Amino acid sequence: MRRVLLGLHPPVTISGSVGTATFFPEVEHRGAPGWVHGGFAATVLDHVCARVASAVLEQKVATGTLNLRYRQPLLLDEGPYDVTAEAGRRGSRTVRITARIHQGERTFVESTALFVGSSLSN
Looking at the whole model, is its pTM more than 0.70? Predict the structure, then answer.
């Protein structure tokens, strides 16, 4: 049995249309030596954005699009990192979310996403 990479789905606190979480990078999240792999950063952002979208739409959601901008490397030994996501424009079954992985004003990765509410019950 393979070990699941922990820490990619941090607990999310939601207040209104804003969600926050803390990402603690682990050695298993390494891409280039000393750096967090960009795919892991994308997974963390997608997770936090999905939680906000689900809260805003009050239903399960699926990621429609996830656009990323890597502004600077996430270093493994400089965490933890804050993650903030905020809901923006909402449609009848969709919501746009902006998010970032940051430390204070220093942004490492930012994203914009579109989430679609699911009509499926499971």
Answer: yes
